[in-house]
Design brief:
Largest sheet: 5 strands, antiparallel
Structural class: alpha+beta
Radius of gyration: 44 Å
Order of helices and strands: HHEEEEEHEEEHHEEEEHHHH
Number of helices: 9
CATH topology of one domain: Transferase(Phosphotransferase), domain 1
Strand order of the largest sheet: 1-2-3-7-6
CATH architecture of one domain: Orthogonal Bundle
Number of strands: 12
Helix content: 25-40%
């Protein structure tokens, strides 16, 4: 009495078996049995998706690798026929090409070479000339490309087979091409031999699309302005390279020029000796002055006087003026378009944008004389020449030579001498100083 009695357990009914508790292992097996269908379905779905994706990717790769054939659209009755692409015929080597595959010669003999030519060859300058002048000159007007004209062979237009023109065949029959003498912005120059007598010549070619100015020869034949001006100054004067003949091909203007047996341009002539003595420089400079005066008397302005454009005969010592690709007619008024080599341009061009023909020629002659007696250009590349620029000269030079160089390189063009003043100068005339 006083204690709480625990509740009484329910007694099982009579005749029914007593339930037994399920062990823990049996519970786990029941849970696994219930989850197995679920995981089996998930695994099968993943494997199916992976397999279908791989097969689809494989089919896509095979489809991309398979070449596609374009279906031709149906043509109507009146549709024009489709043009067929024909292969261009291979041209035989022209007059400016040898059988070894050398490119056509095109450019002046003073164009910049890719490598220094050997001694005894007409070489090119260190700096290619700038594009030719744009000013209007008498006789402008370029004939059509189909109009074949020549100074040696009539009718050098394209032949019936469109392979080698008659002028090209004539050039191949008359000359045998040799080594490359020089190349530059306008093309190449090759040494050649005249087959009739074995005389050495130089073959120079200029692409037709680079000829900007045309003129007329005395017989009325239309020709590039370079040929017209060279024909005016080279006749009867040995100080200018002689034009033997010229031919007009479908794509090139070819000029055949004289070439001494042993010759060298003045640039390499100076480089081989580092510098020239005043006696040798005086003789060459006098010849150049006479050649320039002859050109101006004929109404021709060279505009590209530099050592690379002067050819020296090593046997006779005679100097010849070459490369009239930048030349034009001489005029009294100022030029507003430059043609030639930039490092030889006068200061009035770089600062004012104009120049006069004779004054600019005197300036380039002063640079030429400085290069002969000093072995180098008086102004460094890229140097801005100011009006108060003082030119320093070596003391080993005579006072007359120093005065002549400074006179030619006067900053103001009105202070420079004329060609006649230079020819009468005591140093040029080799008059001893009292």
């Amino acid at each position: 009495p006083g204690r709480a009695m625990p509740p009484a357990r329910p007694r099982p009914r009579a005749g029914l078996p007593r339930p037994r508790p399920c062990p823990r292992a049996s519970r786990r097996g029941l849970a696994s049995a219930r989850l197995w269908p679920y995981w089996r379905w998930r695994c099968w779905a993943g494997i199916s998706a992976w397999a279908s994706g791989g097969i689809a990717a494989l089919c896509l790769r095979l489809a991309r690798a398979r070449p596609r054939t374009r279906r031709r659209p149906r043509r109507g009755v009146h549709s024009p026929p489709r043009p067929r692409h024909r292969r261009r015929p291979r041209h035989l080597p022209g007059p400016a090409e040898d059988t070894r595959g050398a490119a056509a010669p095109a450019a002046s003999a003073a164009a910049s070479p890719a490598r220094a030519p050997p001694s005894g060859s007409a070489a090119a300058g260190p700096e290619p000339p700038v594009s030719r002048s744009q000013e209007r000159t008498p006789g402008d007007g370029r004939p059509g490309a189909g109009e074949g004209r020549s100074g040696a062979v009539a009718g050098p237009g394209p032949s019936a087979d469109s392979r080698v023109s008659p002028a090209g065949k004539a050039l191949q029959e008359r000359y045998r091409l040799g080594s490359l003498l020089g190349r530059g912005g306008f093309g190449r120059v090759f040494a050649a031999t005249r087959l009739s007598d074995g005389a050495p010549v130089a073959i120079k070619g200029v692409p037709r699309n680079r000829v900007r100015h045309w003129g007329e020869l005395p017989d009325g034949t239309s020709a590039p302005l370079e040929i017209v001006l060279l024909a005016k100054v080279s006749t009867g004067f040995s100080g200018v390279v002689q034009l033997l003949e010229w031919l007009e091909l479908p794509k090139y203007i070819v000029m055949v020029l004289e070439r001494p047996e042993r010759c060298q341009d003045l640039r390499h002539f100076i480089r081989a000796r580092r510098l020239l003595s005043e006696e040798v420089a005086r003789e060459l400079f006098r010849q150049v002055l006479e050649a320039v005066r002859h050109c101006t008397s004929c109404g021709v302005l060279h505009r590209d006087i530099k050592p690379a454009n002067i050819l020296v005969d090593l046997d006779t010592g005679q100097a010849k003026l070459i490369d009239f690709g930048c030349s034009t007619y001489l005029q009294d008024t100022a030029y507003t378009h430059f043609a030639g080599t930039r490092s030889y341009s006068p200061p009035e061009w770089t600062q004012l944008g104009l120049y006069y023909g004779e004054a600019a020629t005197i300036w380039s002659l002063g640079i030429l004389l400085h290069q002969m007696v000093c072995g180098e250009h008086p102004f460094r590349r890229g140097q801005n020449i100011t009006w108060d620029h003082q030119l320093s000269l070596p003391q080993r030079l005579s006072q007359e030579c120093q005065d002549l160089i400074r006179w030619c390189l006067s900053m103001h063009f009105l202070d420079r001498p004329t060609l006649e003043d230079l020819l009468c100068d005591p140093w040029v005339q080799d008059i001893p100083h009292p």
